[in-house]
Each structure stands twice: as structure tokens, then as C-alpha cells.
Specification:
elongated, mainly alpha, 160 residues
Length: 160
């Protein structure tokens, strides 16, 4: 395995972490790393794998956003609640590294929904729905990224 493959592999690992901990643009980082690998490798199999991998990355990202957006919109959760929770999650990430992201996101989402609905049970229901669909969106994006990374790894191992 050459230095380029090691560096691309590290970038892919960082991208996978970036999907789970959304501080880095995970899928984008993986896609760029794969493009660099294909340019440097300059072979038809490498470009074929990169094209398939980019489609998988795009499909995983899009599926996560579309599914989350549709379910949250259908539940009537206003965009303001999501934006406030997102900002709180980013702040939480720096207050309590990694764990604060999820904790601040969930608690601020519940608080904004409680303020909007003035009842705890409906606020809990909508907050739980947003958390579930967000987690499912992350899993869909991660599945596409892991499949793309696996294709690249097979290509590197087989020296394509």
C-alpha cells in the first residue's frame, strides 16, 4: 500500500467520523478523497469505482435529507425549532465535546417545541420524531459512505 492510499484511507475515516459527528462535511470529504485517488491512479477501474462511490455518497446524503425533511414537515414541526436546536447542538459540541452536540440539540428541540405547543406530551412526541428521523438520516448517509469506502478498499487491496 502506497502513501497516497494511506492518506486517502485516513481522509475516508475522518469523513466517516464527520457523518456521525457533523462538524466536518463527511460525505463531501470522502468524495474529494476518492477523486484525488482516481486522478492519481488514472485507471479505468479506479474511475468506475469513484463514479459508483460518488453516486452512493450522493444517494445516502439525499435520502437522509429527504426522509428527515418529509417526516418533520408532515409532523408540522416548524423550521425555527430545527434551526434553534441545530445552533444549540453546535454550541453544545464545544461546551461538552461530542456528547454536547446530541444533548443540547435534543434538549433545545424539546424546549422550543414545549414553548410552541405549551404542553409536554405533544412536545415530547414531536421532539422524539425529529430525533428518530435525524438518526435515520445519519444512518442512511453512513450506509452509503461505508459502501463507497468498502468499494475503494477492495480496489486498493486488489490493486486496481
Amino acid at each position: 500500500m502506497d502513501l497516497l492510499a494511506v492518506l486517502v484511507g485516513l481522509a475516508i475515516l475522518v469523513g466517516l467520523v464527520g457523518i456521525i459527528v457533523p462538524v466536518l462535511p463527511g460525505s463531501l470529504l470522502i468524495g474529494v478523497a476518492l477523486l484525488v485517488w482516481a486522478v492519481a491512479t488514472a485507471s479505468l477501474p479506479a474511475w468506475t469505482i469513484v463514479i459508483v462511490a460518488l453516486v452512493l455518497l450522493a444517494a445516502g446524503s439525499a435520502a437522509g435529507y429527504v426522509l428527515t425533511g418529509r417526516q418533520v414537515t408532515a409532523a408540522g414541526v416548524p423550521r425555527r425549532s430545527i434551526v434553534v436546536a441545530g445552533v444549540a447542538g453546535i454550541v453544545g459540541f464545544f461546551v461538552i465535546p461530542v456528547l454536547g452536540l446530541v444533548l443540547f440539540f435534543a434538549l433545545s428541540l424539546l424546549a422550543t417545541e414545549y414553548l410552541r405547543q405549551r404542553e409536554l406530551r405533544p412536545a415530547l412526541t414531536t421532539a422524539w420524531l425529529v430525533l428518530r428521523t435525524t438518526a435515520l438520516g445519519v444512518l442512511l448517509e453512513l450506509a452509503g459512505a461505508l459502501t463507497a469506502a468498502s468499494l475503494w478498499l477492495v480496489a486498493v487491496v486488489l490493486d486496481l
